[in-house]
Amino acid sequence: MSIRPGDVFLLTRAASVQFARPITVRVIHHHADRPTYHGWTWIDCYQLDARGDAVARRELYVMPAGMVRQTDPPAASGRVAVRRATAQQVPRRAGGNTPTRRRAARAEP
What we know:
Layout: E1 8-11, E2 23-31, E3 41-48, E4 54-62, E5 67-69, H1 101-107
Antiparallel strand pairs: 1-2, 1-5, 2-3, 3-4
């Protein structure tokens, strides 16, 4: 099996015993040059959530024979996971929009 950057796989116990709960990953780099036991390999990958967004970078030791290629991977939302405050969510300063003492003092001649 060829493993290329961008490939998406479902990893189960068939790939390694560490995957008691299956995870979906997108391959960043396949370390084919690293010496390992027969039938095993190292990959750098991003673990994906249900929406297809990367949630963690991982370096995994797996059996390629147990990796299930995903032909229809979840589409990444492409959105930044930062929650931005709207005008209604921004807390108001006590006293509303009244000038502070410092600004009021500067305004006087």
